[in-house]
Design a protein that fits this description.
Helices cover 47% and strands 17% of the residues. The chain is an alpha/beta fold.
């Protein structure tokens, strides 16, 4: 799978560790920044990753900031991006099963790395159920 990743300075460490995890599992990654601990603006980097998704250059997007909320809000401004905050395993599973989420965000300050890596795998390996949920996705897209 092709995956674009982005973070701000508050999510840099986890972003780099997620990239390593993904590469070790055979995924192709695209690092959309930041690559510095200097204070920066997360919408710049979230935009780069989300543009890759809407232009069909990648299959999924993973975003990290301090809380996971800011990058999630930035991502959902793009038509066709369905991003949620991956705050527990069941929610991540349901984001895929029911909402066909194609982007996920994490908060480095408020989540443990082992939980984030587990949720990355859930996000990538859980299928969309379609059925009655497809109608809802179509409504969101309109």
């Amino acid at each position: 799978m092709k995956i674009a990743l982005a973070s701000d300075h508050g999510g840099l460490d986890y972003k780099n560790k997620i990239i390593e995890h993904l590469k070790n599992n055979g995924h192709e990654t695209f690092d959309c920044g930041t690559n510095s601990l200097d204070s920066c603006h997360y919408p710049i980097f979230a935009k780069k990753a989300c543009e890759m998704l809407v232009n069909h250059q990648v299959d999924r997007v993973i975003l990290v900031c301090t809380t996971g909320e800011g990058v999630c809000m930035a991502a959902n401004r793009f038509k066709g991006v369905r991003c949620g905050v991956g705050y527990n395993d069941e929610v991540v599973s349901l984001m895929r099963h029911h909402n066909d989420a194609n982007a996920i965000s994490f908060g480095q300050k408020f989540m443990k790395l082992d939980e984030v890596l587990r949720r990355v795998d859930i996000f990538l390996n859980t299928p969309f159920d379609a059925g009655r949920h497809l109608t809802r996705i179509q409504m969101i897209e309109q």
